[in-house]
What does this fold into?
Amino acid sequence: MNFLELAQTRRSLRTYLEKPVEKEKLEYVLECARLAPSWKNMQCWRFIVIDEAVGREAMAESMGESNPGRKALMSAPLIVVLCAVPKESEVWEGKDNMMLDAGLAMEHLILAATEQGLGTCWQGLFSEEKVRAALGIPDDVRVVAMTPLGYAAEERRPRPRKAMSEIVFHKKWGQA
It folds into this structure.
């Protein structure tokens, strides 16, 4: 699969099969995340892999009752929690490179999972304090995102995308 096909195939999935993720596939997606680029190569990201029901329940509870992401976290065999260490990155001209670096690592993980036939669903609406307490994360580490990881129990349907003319300008803002 070339990169364009990979990007076209990736979808946010909310239901997963009760099928374990092979250790080799998990290690592969984590290795891909580890190789992501980062500000000054500081590699601020950390990943926590949750493979037990009690951990999945704690992550789902951190989201609140009405959050549709709860279903995804409860049905997947694994959850990967993305953390970042602020002192291993910098804010420059108002831009928080820690968030960008962590996002790049998670995107590498998500695309690698897609390549391996696995599904994911980026989750960002949760109580950071509840996740921190449940997983013993130190106060000087940020919880950035999490994703369920497993085999899809639903079809990967294409989602509408904006036209290239809406998002790409040439020479100046607004010029087609």
Observations:
- The helical segments are 3-9, 23-34, 53-61, 69-75, 97-115, 128-135, 164-167.
- Strands lie at 45-50, 78-84, 91-92, 95-96, 119-120, 142-150.
- The two ends are 31 Å apart (CA to CA).
